[in-house]
Design a protein that fits this description.
GO terms for molecular function: FAD binding; oxidoreductase activity. The chain has 584 residues and is α+β, with helices and mostly antiparallel strands. The chain is built from 14 helices and 22 strands.
Length: 584
Amino acid sequence: MQQKNPPKHGFQSIVTQLTLGLFILPFASSYPFGGVETRASSIQDCLTQNSVPYQDSTSSSWATTISPYNLRLQYTPAVVTLPTTSQHVSDAIVCAAAAGLKVQAKSGGHSYASYSTGGKDGSVIISLENFNSISVDTETNIATVGGGVRLGNLALGIYSQGKRALPHGTCPGVGIGGHFTHGGYGYASRLWGLALDTIVGLDVVLANGTQIHTTASAYPDIFYAMRGAGDSFGIAIAFYLQTFAAPSSVLTFSASIPATLDSVSTAVSSFTKLQEFTLDSTRIYNNITLGIYTDNYGSFSLSGWCMSCNLDHFKSVTFPEILSAFPAPASSSVESLGWTEALVSADNGGQLQVPLTGYDAHDTFYAKSVVTKNAQPLTNSQLTSYFTYILNQGRNAPSPWYTIIDLYGGAGSQVNAPSSDSSAYSDRDAHWVFQNYGFTANSLPPYDDAITPFVDSLNSALSAGTSTDFGAYLNYVDPQLSATDAAMLGYGQSTYNKLLSIKKAVDPNEVFWNPQSIGAADDTDSTSNGSSGTTTSTTPTSTSTTSKPSATSPLKVSTNASCGNGYTCKGKAGKLSEEKGLDR
């Protein structure tokens, strides 16, 4: 399929269109505003009149439909629409706006903050599960992908059409929507950039139901905002992605090195040496990526990829140099695999193909992240504080936990190649991303409230007593943060200000809303858990399990428990399987 030509409207900025009445909502006067029950009834009438498929609380599969990925945070939408056409999406948005209800899209539904069920009770959810087509233009190698496609199906779909590949995450069940519009990190990202960086066009439905095709030259403000803050600006029903030729071979490597945690000094020394290696362009190239995993069981492991590398040279030179930072490993391996086989290996042997409907994966957890910077390598004092906390408190934690430390930056990383103002994803000096994650032993409720302060302390230990400018990875949503803290950690003041100006122009009534969406900080600045819903903790009456973290304490979440249907999307007991960026 040829890439769509930009609409010939002659507008270079979506803001200009305000003067043309673009945001006058049809139907608005037909549906009076009222209480929650009245609004729900209004939207049901509106959806029925416009033949938009939907489910509500009277539907037989309602409980399954609204069950979130994170069972700790459960919200009840007014309705869940199941559009099959772009017009259905437009009509659903207009009906919601007319009824005074907020809208959130659901692509794969993996939001750690349950924003794919609204982040509060009474929202309108637009499920994109029927938008699952995948086609690759053999001339341009641009893939056109529906907004409800999951990563495993995406990988198989584009590989089957000319052996194409993308730098997306490793959990097959994650949807393209939140993953690609808020970053999207995978093992190929140091070589090819973030998933977001492959977007060359988007079909987007805006807050008034208008359908546009946006690129760098058509509606550039929307193109900027959708790549980093998509959930606040529109619903992407189709992505146009510049694919890469899949490498003929990928070297996957791993090592179990529990002796690293024999003492704080050993752990600090090992990490410092590895950090020096990652910043040295004479020793590491951007076709190499790696991550570290540790947990409450005392596991410490390293794993990664080397794309299109010589097996003998890597085994005899490069891998030993990486391992030289650590004590002798208990075990290690290097294996040469094909592209799809390497993706399977990264998911601990799970299946790439995911059912188009009926996907059912859950966990019960709280997680945060820290994004460090290339320009400010982690210091001895920071690492000492972090590993001291792990060794002193980590073994006696109230529930299972793990940390994954991914190399986003380092020498030559294409994650940091774009300019900070090229998209709303402006964090282009990332080095490490720490994902600190605490969960219930069986991945089910009830949630133990003691998990929350433990994970908070893991995060704060890294920045204790320092003024380092840490950030947060957008796809790892921390619902305990206020909207202001989330905005500053995820975007920074300059990017957020630009996004806010676009938001006020294209969605002044905040139709697209969640507790941390653009503009939410200008409303009532409260943590997302304060918006009704159910928190499945051992203290059922509490809607928030911790006080607001400090703005200097970065956030984010991590990987996940069983993805269901045989998928393993989070590491346990020493296994490393990163979920590189999730749905909102």
